[in-house]
């Protein structure tokens, strides 16, 4: 058992709830109908990522498992690459036990707001430590890391969840942050400047110490989602993850750092090491979530101490800027934005952060908002660092259908009255439209709701939407069932 | 031509930044169903209104309610 200080840090309580063990391989087995295993050999250099782009172009989002990826040196890896794991909102919601992905925002907000402490297991009960590679045997180049995009200088770990801890409080933090594999035991690591991991690293460096870091790769999508909960500082992600999955996350002390840094016991691969004090090297350019290649930066360097993995380990890769990276992060954002807006606008009913807006757009849905509530909600959402444009609509508009959103914008907005911009808010400077040298962004809110009825019992002073009776529509839809429409013209 | 009584309720104006609708509604005296009417017909009290729900024809002055936008 952890000591009292450790218990407080990772939030271990008395809960003994335990369901089926969640891991990546059990998830793939359960979702085998949604898994595509390409028959042809695919290289880790561009080809696996190209397959993801080709699937996106087709509008299809299966999980992809490349059993025998070809490495950059022409050899074949025995470690399969799993990608496109989280490209489908429906699959991700299903992994969370949510029947309809469109209802994820309030459920995610509620579950991550009810944390469940992790359960610490011993090394013998931790599959991720079945194989331990230390010293010369700890070889990063054994991993089938991908060189995804043109301009990327080499192979990157893109689904490495970096876990550090605050040396002042002992509280850990987890975030997905990229690593460029440079040799067997060295890689660059980019915790972007505003991140909590960067803050932890700077604290260690200020004390004259290298910063302990572990990177874990490959887990059940619900665990991946849980560890992406948007939290304050310092705040451990293990308990928020437990809240989301509805049971304690199984964690095990890392080999190098013991219970100072726990790792998920049922992950596939763990890399342990130090971010060397004050050492920076060139990292990137790198294809970013914006859909553009981000510029080269000066990044810390990791000296690897140990690699552990399961037998028959799976390697997970996120397509950077592709749907599989955007979907889980955006769904986690929906939970965060829901909480922020609901606090000031109780009539909020739903939130969508659409992948086509990267992380910059959010759609808010209101049901009978009171005076000022929509603008209160829009302003609260704009204050969230990641967002740049927020649109509010009524509950007759399908937030998940962009043609519905365009309908609302086209017919419910007078621009000078119903939109407002606020300059000088915090945001992502990776946005290519950001002026050189700026530290803040210009943001926009649009109220695309209709006015409410002037008196109780009266209709709204707007025209009703044209529609046919629900029964007639259902009947017409049934009449179309089973008809081959493949030759019919599209819009 | 003017009518002797009016049953038109005007929607109170708000601040310029507040949303106000542009559509007036009338309530059928027969079936109590609501339908929307344009400013042109409300300016012609001599033209009878026609309920799209129950097909009743009625004068403005006989409407259960008229709520006028603008
Ligand atoms: Zn009628």
List the strand order in the largest sheet of chain B.
1-6-2-3
What is CATH's topology name of the largest domain in chain A?
A: Pnp Oxidase, Chain A
Shape of chain A: globular
Task: Return the average pLDDT of chain B rounded to an integer.
Answer: 90
Radius of gyration of chain A: 24 Å
Question: How would a textbook summarize the main sheet of chain A?
Answer: 9 strands, antiparallel
Strand segment tally of chain B: 6
Count of separate DSSP helical elements of chain B = 1
Name every ligand kind in the structure: zinc ion
**Unreliable stretches covering 5 or more consecutive residues of chain B:** none
Estimated structural class of chain A = alpha+beta
Run of helices and strands of chain B:
EEEHEEE
Task: Compute the CA-based radius of gyration of chain B.
Answer: 13 Å
- Oligomerization state of this entry? heterodimer
Supply the number of structural domains of chain A: 2
Question: Could you describe the 3D structure shown?
Answer:
The complex is a heterodimer of chains A (491) and B (70). Chain A is of the alpha+beta class. Chain A has 2 domains: 15-316, Electron Transport, Fmn-binding Protein, Chain A (Pnp Oxidase, Chain A, Roll); 343-447, UbiD C-terminal domain-like, CATH 3.40.1670. Chain A has helices at residues 4-10, 24-30, 47-58, 89-95, 104-112, 196-206, 221-226, 237-245, 323-342, 373-382, 402-412, 415-418, 470-480, and strands at 35-36, 63-66, 81-83, 119-120, 131-134, 156-157, 161-165, 172-176, 179-181, 186-189, 211-217, 250-254, 258-264, 269-283, 286-287, 293-294, 297-309, 315-316, 348-352, 361-366, 389-394, 419-425, 441-447. In chain A, strands 5, 6, 7, 8, 9, 10, 11, 14 and 17 form a 9-stranded antiparallel beta sheet that branches. Chain A has a 5-stranded mixed beta sheet with strand order 19-20-21-23-22, with helices on both faces. Chain A is globular, with a radius of gyration of 24 Å. The model of chain A is unreliable at 1-19 (pLDDT under 50). Chain B has a domain at 24-70. Chain B is mainly β and 70 residues long. In chain B, β2 (24-27) and β3 form a beta hairpin. The radius of gyration of chain B is 13 Å and the shape is elongated. Chain A binds chain B through residues 371, 417-418, 447, 449-451, 454-455, 458-464, and chain B through 9, 11-12, 16-25, 34, 36, 65, 67, 69. Zinc ion (ZN) is lined by residues 28, 30-31, 33, 51, 53-54, 56 of chain B.
């Amino acid at each position: 058992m952890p000591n009292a200080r450790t218990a407080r840090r990772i939030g271990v309580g008395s809960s003994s709830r335990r369901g089926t063990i969640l891991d990546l391989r059990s998830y793939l087995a359960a979702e085998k109908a949604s898994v595509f295993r390409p028959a042809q050999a695919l290289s880790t250099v561009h080809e696996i990522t190209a397959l993801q782009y080709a699937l996106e172009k087709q509008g299809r989002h299966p999980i992809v498992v490349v059993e025998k990826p070809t490495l950059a040196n022409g050899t074949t890896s025995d470690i399969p690459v799993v990608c496109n794991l989280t490209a489908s909102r429906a699959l991700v919601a299903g992994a969370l036990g949510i029947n309809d992905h469109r209802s994820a925002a309030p459920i995610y907000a509620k579950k991550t707001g009810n944390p469940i402490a992790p359960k610490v297991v011993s090394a013998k009960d931790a599959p991720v430590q079945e194989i331990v590679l230390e010293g010369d045997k700890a070889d990063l180049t054994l991993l089938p890391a991908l060189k995804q995009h043109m301009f990327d200088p080499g192979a990157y770990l893109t689904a490495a969840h970096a876990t550090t801890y605050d040396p002042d409080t002992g509280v850990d933090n987890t975030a997905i942050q990229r690593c460029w594999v440079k040799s067997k035991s060295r890689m660059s690591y980019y915790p972007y400047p505003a991140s909590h991991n960067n803050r932890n690293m700077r604290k260690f460096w200020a004390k004259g110490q290298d910063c302990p870091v572990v990177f874990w790769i490959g887990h059940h999508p619900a665990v991946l989602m849980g560890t992406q909960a948007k939290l304050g500082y310092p705040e451990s992600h293990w308990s928020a993850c437990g809240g989301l999955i509805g049971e304690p996350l199984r964690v095990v002390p890392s080999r190098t750092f013991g219970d100072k840094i726990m790792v998920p016991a049922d992950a596939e691969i763990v890399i342990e090491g130090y971010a060397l004090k004050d050492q920076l090297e060139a990292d990137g350019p790198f294809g970013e979530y914006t859909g553009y290649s981000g510029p080269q930066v000066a990044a810390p360097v990791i000296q690897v101490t140990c690699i552990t993995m399961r037998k028959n380990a799976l390697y997970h890769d996120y397509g950077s800027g592709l749907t599989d990276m955007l979907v889980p992060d955006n769904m986690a954002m929906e939970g965060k934005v829901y909480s922020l807006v609901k606090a000031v606008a109780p009539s909020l009913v739903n939130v969508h952060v659409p992948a086509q807006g990267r992380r910059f757009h959010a759609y808010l849905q209101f049901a009978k908002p009171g005076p000022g509530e929509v603008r209160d909600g829009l302003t609260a959402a704009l204050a969230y660092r990641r967002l740049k444009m927020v649109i509010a609509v009524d509950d007759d508009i399908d937030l998940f259908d962009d043609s519905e959103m365009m309908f609302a914008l086209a017919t419910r907005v007078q621009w000078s009255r119903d939109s407002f911009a606020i300059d000088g808010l915090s945001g992502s400077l990776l946005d290519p439209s950001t002026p050189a040298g700026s530290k803040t962004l210009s943001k926009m809110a649009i109220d695309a709701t209709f006015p409410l009825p002037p008196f109780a019992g009266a209709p709204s002073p707007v025209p009703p939407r044209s529609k046919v009776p629900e029964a007639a529509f259902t009947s017409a839809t049934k009449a179309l069932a089973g008809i081959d429409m493949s030759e019919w013209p599209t819009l | 031509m003017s009518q002797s009584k009016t049953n038109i309720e005007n929607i109170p104006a708000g601040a310029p930044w507040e949303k106000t609708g542009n559509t007036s509604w009338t309530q059928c005296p027969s079936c109590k169903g609501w339908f929307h009417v344009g400013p042109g017909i409300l300016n012609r009290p001599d033209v009878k209104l026609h309920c799209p729900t129950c097909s009743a024809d009625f004068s403005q002055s006989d409407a259960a309610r008229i709520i006028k936008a603008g």
